[in-house]
Design brief:
Blueprint (H helix, E strand, L loop, with lengths): L2 H19 L5 H15 L9 E7 L5 E8 L10 E9 L8 H15 L4 E4 L6 H9 L14
Parallel strand pairs: 3-4
Antiparallel strand pairs: 1-2, 2-3
Amino acid sequence: MRPDEYENYTTRRDLEYVQALAETLPAEAAMEKAREDRARFLPQGLATERHRLLAAENTAGQVVGYAWVGLEEPRTKTTDTAWLHDISVEEPYRRSGYGRAILSAVEAVAREAGASRLGLNVFGDNASAISLYQTSGYEVTAQQMAKRL
């Protein structure tokens, strides 16, 4: 990912993250969490050690999506598990196989770094991402639930 792509990506990612968090948090708290998480996980942006930010291009050279993978598990810092922080496909390119191709590339990056597992979190209402992960062999390892009262 180039620096200009990084700026576009993180701006859009933060907005999408805030929108997802706003389902369970007040808007201001969601914005604060997004800011805190980026500062914690990407303190040096593109140069953050043990993190890879990828831009995927089609054969015409157009950016079709992005991925962010940490080469260690975020809580334990163990390197046998890499962590998919984010994967996205640009709207016009969705449902064309790019998500699966990007996920496959992320898995290759993780394997090359020595990881034997790739973990991730997915919001429960993101049916298309859940389907992608399930059909790619991912299994639920934890589940969080809530009910609006």
